[in-house]
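Run log // design_07
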């Protein structure tokens, strides 16, 4: 059978592959679905035909026929301390609900749009997106165009027309700043997060408001641009602490735990005592916050519970086709965890 007969068609189907290979459509389906009921020789033959005809399995149609809800997740930072807790919560929730999770790392794609398109091509019914992806209008438009629901996760600027699970980053940072002030600290440095992430903006605004409410002037030289990474925390920690005592802050509030714990390591390396010489606070309460010495004072974000809630909320919306439930923005409670890395100012 001539190859041109298939290549001139609008789209090659599984039946075309079967006809060209001289086998049944069921045999091709078994190869596509990685069934072990096909011999290695037959598998190789069919795979060669699939490649030759450029056949792309219709995964979206297959997902629709299965009746199982497919939820996609894109994660942006594989090194984040948050990732383990997030995946544990999401997987546990998906298991109890009977839905399927498809996890896509952003680093495997040229852009967020490509990562989302990959999940759409795999037949997802909804996606859970972190910032800054979930804050992009283009991303929401691509999803809506393909009838895929978007849930914004941990965004400080959730869309009014899209469900979201988050915490109040502003209030959490405000609470931590007031806590440091109550300990007697006024010379407080702040390490910002990645400026493209809306939570970083909300946390910085909380710091600024709390300082202003206490009539404490912010030292602009002590507000530094971080990126949420441990490496950047090391760099900025050295910049702030490798100075004479009268030129450095007495407390440092970092926008996340990775940067805060890096600063603790820098302090140790410089021979400074934590918290006697410098108080250090973070945000998120990831596993690393309890693994360092002294343990980190931080804002607890219940990431595992939030991930479970996100999967459950999106699953419910998909099953109702988005019609039976209003758009829900679930705001999880935060908690200030006072640990050994902070103490009253020693004069």
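design_07 sequence
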């Amino acid at each position: 059978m001539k190859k041109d007969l298939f290549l001139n068609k609008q789209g090659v189907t599984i039946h075309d592959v079967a006809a060209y290979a001289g086998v049944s459509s069921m045999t091709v389906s078994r190869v596509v679905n990685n069934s072990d009921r096909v011999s290695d020789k037959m598998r190789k033959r069919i795979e060669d035909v699939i490649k030759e005809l450029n056949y792309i399995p219709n995964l979206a149609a297959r997902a629709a026929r299965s009746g199982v809800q497919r939820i996609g997740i894109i994660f942006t930072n594989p090194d984040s301390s948050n990732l383990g807790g997030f995946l544990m919560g999401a997987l546990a929730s998906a298991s109890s609900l009977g839905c399927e999770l498809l996890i896509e790392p952003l680093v495997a794609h040229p852009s967020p749009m490509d990562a989302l398109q990959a999940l759409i091509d795999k037949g997802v019914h909804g996606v859970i997106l972190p910032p800054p992806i979930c804050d992009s209008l283009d991303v929401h438009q691509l999803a809506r165009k393909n009838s895929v629901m978007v849930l914004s996760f941990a965004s400080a600027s959730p869309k009014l027309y899209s469900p979201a699970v988050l915490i109040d980053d502003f209030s959490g940072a405000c609470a931590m700043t007031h806590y440091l002030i109550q300990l007697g600290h006024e010379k407080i440095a702040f390490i910002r997060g990645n400026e493209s992430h809306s939570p970083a903006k909300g946390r910085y605004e909380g710091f600024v408001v709390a300082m202003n409410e206490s009539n404490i002037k912010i030292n602009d030289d002590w507000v530094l641009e971080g990126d949420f990474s441990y490496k950047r925390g090391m760099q900025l920690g050295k910049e702030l602490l490798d100075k004479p005592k009268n030129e450095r802050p007495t407390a440092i509030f970092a926008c996340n735990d990775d940067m805060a714990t890096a600063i603790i390591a820098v302090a140790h390396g410089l021979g400074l005592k934590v918290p006697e010489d410098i108080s250090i606070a973070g945000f998120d309460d990831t596993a690393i916050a309890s693994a360092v010495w002294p343990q980190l004072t931080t804002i607890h974000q219940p990431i595992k519970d939030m991930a479970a809630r996100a999967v459950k909320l999106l699953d419910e919306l998909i099953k109702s086709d988005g019609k039976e439930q209003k758009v829900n923005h679930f705001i999880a409670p935060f908690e200030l965890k006072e640990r050994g890395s902070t103490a009253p100012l020693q004069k």
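The radius of gyration is 25 Å.
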